[in-house]
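Message: A physicist's question: would you kindly supply an amino acid chain plus fold tokens?
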Amino acid sequence: MASNTIKYEEFERYLQQFDWLQATINQFLKDARMAGLDAPNLDPAQGAALVIEATTAWVDDLKGDHLGFQSFNYRVDLPSSVEPMNMATSEVATLYLFRCFQKVWLRKRFSEGPSKDEEEIRQKHLKP
């Protein structure tokens, strides 16, 4: 059965693909708008490294706005065990992008429907 989680190493690989980077940026921008924040200008054509760099600069500014920072942390659904104020700005930026990527990945994963193996298992267990 396929996994419903994604590892950070896979995230790094996926971000090298334009479509995944674009979808992650779109989710990031949506989350920023939903948190009432001005979003940074992120261009997937520049590649993942420059997107992360631009996001890091944005996070650096955001850390000065306590309410906005907390709002965005909530919006991207950071785990309560994570303390972004105690993390390096580049780590926070990467974590934000990772959380946005996870949303995109999960949405795609569950919109495709069950795999053939999952469907066979489900049918086997649904039989009277």
The chain has a mean pLDDT of 88. Helices lie at 8-14, 18-34, 48-62, 66-75, 89-111, 116-126.
